[in-house]
Amino acid sequence: MNPLVSFFIIAIVTFSIPLMLMRYGKNFLIGLMPIYLITANVFAESFFTFYGTIQSLAVPIYCGTFLLTDILSEYYGRKESQKAVWLGFAGQIFFVLMMFIIINSDILPDKLAVYQSTFKVIPRLILGSMIAYLVSQFMNVYFYNKIWDITGRTDKGLFWRNNISTILAQFLDTTIIMFVAFYNSPPFETTAKLWAFIFTTWLFKVVVAYIDFPFMFASKKINNAK
Questions:
Q1: Using CA atoms, how far apart are residues 186 and 175, in angstroms rounded to an integer?
Q2: In total, how many domains does the chain have?
Q3: Distance between CA atoms of 139 and 170, rounded to whole angstroms?
Q4: Contact at 8 Å (CB) between 144 and 69?
Q5: What is the pTM of this model?
Q6: Where does residue 16 fall: left (phi above 0), alpha (psi -120 to 50 degrees), or beta otherwise?
Q7: Alpha-carbon distance 137 to 160, whole Å?
């Protein structure tokens, strides 16, 4: 399958699931956060080329975490979105702990080699992800609520608070995680290559932010219908 097609299919599926879970309440949305985060971390190296740039199929999955916090902020308030942020962080800690124990255990050699090969770059990714995640998600919640204070609870305001908060927070997220996880490592052996990847990845995330807005708008109709 063409990776760009896969990218948009992943985005649509990722953004649709929170809408399906809204009818079951905020706890299901909060619980989805670590699932998205760990899945995005595992597939972070699913790279493909797009007009000479390197992109990852995990980008829309990670962007789904911003949609989650926006939905929680919109309908349940800042405290509930912050709960999701902390639960996602706890999920990553658990994943790292289990990974460390398993790859340092005397399991069958062929299976151990597979795990070690699969997870050799995951610790850097997880470290970068955790730092970037906490900074960007709390800033996303902050930006969202500040813009909300300006725009009020209007449909037009929803567009601005959803997109501006996500775009600003994702620039912070992309810069932090890429430097921690990929600095001086293939395929980003030079700082110029890394910055090019950061900028193009952020632009992809901007596109994804606009893709997720119809889902955010649909969440308003679902919330009103409850």
A1: 17
A2: 1
A3: 9
A4: yes
A5: 0.83
A6: alpha
A7: 17
